[in-house]
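Lab notebook, page 48
Experiment: co-folding of the full assembly
Goal: obtain a model of how the components sit together before planning crosslinking
Operator: M.T.
Materials (sequences as entered):
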Amino acid sequence: MKSITKYTLFGLLALALVGGGLGYYMFNKKVPTLEKTNPDFVISADDLFNEFENDESKALKKFENKIIEVTGKVISVKNNKFDSNIILVAEMAMIGGVNCSFKYKQENEVKKGSMVTIKGQCQGFLMDVVLNNCQLIK
Amino acid sequence: MKKITIITALLFLGFVGFAQNHITRTGTIQFFSETDIENIEAINNQVSSVINTENGEIVFSVLMKAFTFEKALMQEHFNEKYVESEKFPKAKFKGKVTNFSLSDLTEKPKEFSITGSLLIHGVTKEINESIMLSKNNKNLIIGTSTFTVKPEDYSIEIPSIVRGNISKTIEIKVKMDYEKMD
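Observation: model returned without errors.
Model output:
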């Protein structure tokens, strides 16, 4: 009897520790990077922008929250203190394009006018198609 | 389709051609909540904004989902439970900088007041805040503003179980650098 109580107590304690540990882990879990995530769509900046411009709600249904690998020509590069933006031009757009936000400052040689491929998560459409949590592929 | 796009583009060109607009698509909005239990911070560097330098009219548009947090759970709760970004994807501000004059701007930031309506979580409120404006050596207009909002003013409900973790007033920091649109 005594040993059963002991085991039960020990079991409960172990469970509490695992539960607590798991809870702590979940609570502190960082937003994951997309480095190892496969894209849901591989598309050009022109095509992606056109889908949003032609029918925003339809494009939202298709692309929102999805991981997109987009290729296009760089129209602007902006490095802030901690993070960066690269905007890809869309040929049919007056001012719009694909706005890619990087969580960490980019220390690469991407220049205005070069062709790049970027992977990011689609969050919607303002003047540009907005991708964030981006990774530069090439 | 191409024809329509070109026509829209031309109309838009006409519209912006006459008005003197400065624009940014990479403005930053950061918010902070500080309590004894934990600090919460999120950043969005994809804010679109246009300022008309003839009359000081200004608009901001931001995707709620594009706020990034350090912790995954915070980001999930923010989107799903608090601001409900599926239902209310965009926050907007439309207003005016009082007594705006482009020629008054120098490299030294000058304080202006800004009034207008702020839409968050489907609720619109009139606000009146101050904004610092300057012009840098690259001819960009730099605007910064810090103000606070109360989640309850925008019908954002914080459940009692986490009320201690989230500050009653959220500090919002805005930083914009506008380029001239030609």
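Interpretation: The domain at 21-180 of chain B is CATH 2.40.128.110 (Lipocalin).
Next step: discuss with group before ordering constructs.
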